[in-house]
Write a structure and sequence with these properties.
By secondary structure, the chain is an alpha/beta fold. It is globular and about 45 Å long. The protein has ten helices and eight strands. The structure holds cytidine-5'-monophosphate. Cytidine-5'-monophosphate binds at residues 12, 34-35, 38-39, 93-94, 97, 127-129, 175, 179.
Length: 218
């Protein structure tokens, strides 16, 4: 079967990215960040003036995106991570990601990246619908959550924007609402996923739990 796939899903600020990166490092696996593919489409849509409601045009933009290990590219050119993490791109990513046709294209991009990674030993794949839609056959599925207050605080600290805590909390709540209420692949724990509420847990504790699940599965 090749290497192991570890799916980590959860809302913004649940610790997904940090946990996925650390688990991948400890297991010597690649870390596939599927959110970056939605962000790449969002960035393209802002640059090319494609409306966040134009599903067919957005799906066409998505066809220009590739994911290879930790690198996202558009038309074969690597997109620097910093350009994908601006507040404008974050907000647009959540809006464009509601369209089923665009999701269909990006899910294939993500599966292709996971197949390649599996041949090289495996991957830790993070997103919103990895366990439910992208990789329902992943050996390990984890659903991370944390209280809204804690998630906003983590995000504010992570980006050195403590003064903007309230604004971050509001933007995050809006993204959560869009991500969990959308009809196409809403944010949900997959059947059989291990649910971890990380409120009050340290990064190390969460990482150890996920490593334990990965050991049991391999
Ligand atoms: O994980 P990240 O915050 O980078 O994701 C950006 C946006 O992309 C999310 O708010 C969500 O709308 C969308 N997304 C998604 N499905 C995924 C990963 C991200 O819909 N698997």
């Amino acid at each position: 079967r090749g290497g192991i796939l570890v799916a980590i899903d959860g809302p913004a600020g649940s610790g997904k990215s940090t946990v996925a990166r650390e688990v991948a490092r400890r297991l010597g696996l690649v870390n596939l960040n599927t959110g970056a593919t939605y962000r790449a489409v969002a960035k393209l849509s802002l640059e090319e003036g494609v409306g966040t409601g134009d599903e067919a045009a957005l799906a066409a933009l998505a066809r220009r995106v590739r994911l290879r290990g930790e690198t996202v590219s558009v038309d074969g050119e690597t997109v620097p991570d910093a350009e994908l993490r601006t507040p404008e791109v974050s907000a647009a990513a959540s809006r464009v990601s509601s369209h089923p046709k665009l999701r269909e294209v990006l899910v294939e991009v993500q599966r292709e990246a996971a197949r390649a990674a599996r041949r090289d030993g495996g991957a830790v794949v993070e997103g919103r619908d990895i366990g439910t839609v992208v990789l329902p056959d992943a050996e390990v599925k984890v659903f991370l959550s944390a209280s809204a207050e804690e998630r906003a605080l983590r995000r504010a600290r992570q980006s050195g924007r403590e003064a903007e805590l309230e604004r971050i909390r509001v933007a995050m709540a809006e993204r959560d609402r869009q991500d969990s209420e959308r009809e196409a692949s809403p944010l949900r724990a997959a059947p059989g996923a291990e649910r971890l509420d990380t409120t009050g847990m340290s990064l190390d504790e969460v990482v150890e739990r996920v490593l334990g699940l990965a050991r049991e599965a391999s």
